[in-house]
Structures are given as structure tokens and as C-alpha cells.
Amino acid sequence: MTKIIGLTGGIGSGKTMVAKYIKSLGIPVYIADDEAKKIMTTDAVIQAIIKEFGTEVIDNNKLNREKLAQLVFNNSEKLEKLNKIVHPQVKKHFESWLEMNKNAPFVLKETAILFESGSNKYCDAILTVTSPLETRLQRVIERDKTDRASVLKRMESQWTDEQRVAKSDFIIQNISIDDTKKQVDEIFKLLKNQ
Question: What's the total number of domains in the chain?
């Protein structure tokens, strides 16, 4: 039976880098955010979003992700409505992906909102990636070409490291790439022996 390993962490923690390294070890990796972005371009999802949020989030028959983000990220009720449209589709997609990878001893599901979405209930083990706050801020400011206040606001909408760590089986402290890889290697050695 394939074990599902959940990977999560706050914005800028380095979960994508960790996921890429795990993939390089030959473990199938599902990046929920990437798949959600693709799913949000499907007609059925766009129609559901228009029904819920109106046509102001659509430009040239395409979803304007920035407008939608501005609309939902400061409004937990609207964010929840969007999640109710997208999350069931991502869950269905993950289940088909899992079926295609059923012969792998492990698969990794990377998602920023593993606990918030309830996906943790389907995982056999959970890895949380942490990094110092200033490191996370710098990474996101550089990556997204944004400002400190915007990043802090996004961080406020996520669970804290303390909340994630309390519910996780393994913690990866992502400070240096080499050290992070060593931590991942140790964790998968332990998982293989369980």
C-alpha cells in the first residue's frame, strides 16, 4: 500500500525546494498549488467562480488570478467559498494521480494548507518545513517582487509554524540547502524502515 507523505510549511519556508529534492530521490511528488492553478483554468471551475464572485474576476474570458486573490485574501468568508469550489476538484485530481502512482512505496503531497484543508487526515506521515521569519520574508519579497507588508499579511492568513509543528511527525529546518537535504535523507531512511 502506497504511503502518502504530506509536506507543508508557511509561505517562503522552502517547501517547493524540499519537494523538488524529494522528487529527485525518485519519489512521486504532487504539488497541490500547481494542480489547483491548472484546475482553475477549466471551464467548470471558471463558471462556478463567475457564479460566486461575478465577472469582475474575468479578463478576456480568462480568470484574473490577481483580482481574485485581492478579493478573497482579505475576506475569510470569500476565501472559504473559493476553497469550496477548488478543493473538491483538487482532491479528485489527487485521487486519480495517486491511482497512477499506486505501485510507489511513498508519494509526497505538497500543500501550504495541508491542515487547513483537512488533507492531513489522509496522510500516513506529515513533514513540516520551517525557516526563520526574516529568511522567509526575504525569499518571498524577492520571488514575488512584493513588499514586506504584503507578505506579512499573507502569512497572517496561514497557520503558524507552531500550529503546524504541533501536528507534524517530522520537522525540517530549512536554513542551508545541504543541511536540509541531509534532514530529508534521514527522514526517508526512517520512513522506509517503518
Answer: 2
- Please calculate the CA angle 103-106-111 and round it to the nearest 5 degrees: 125
Q: How, if at all, do strands 58-59 and 106-110 pair? A: unpaired
Same domain, 193 and 154: yes
End-to-end CA distance of the chain: 13
The span from the CA of 69 to the CA of 9, in Å, is 20
Note whether 24 and 43 are same-domain residues.
no
Of 122, 100, 113, which Cα lies nearest the Cα of 158?
113
Per-residue pLDDT tens digits for 116-152: 888 999 999 999 999 999 999 999 999 989 999 989 9
Are 85 and 57 in contact, with CB atoms under 8 Å apart? no
What is the pTM (predicted TM-score) of this model? 0.89
For 188, residues 6+ apart whose C-beta sits below 8 A from its C-beta are 22, 25, 27, 106
DSSP notation for 69-104: HHHHTT-HHHHHHHHHHHHHHHHHHHHHHHHHTTTS
Spatial CA neighbour of 88 closest among 54, 48, 58: 48
Which structural domain, as residue segments, surrounds residue 11? 1-28+106-194
Residues 52-66 have pLDDT tens digits of: 999 999 998 889 988
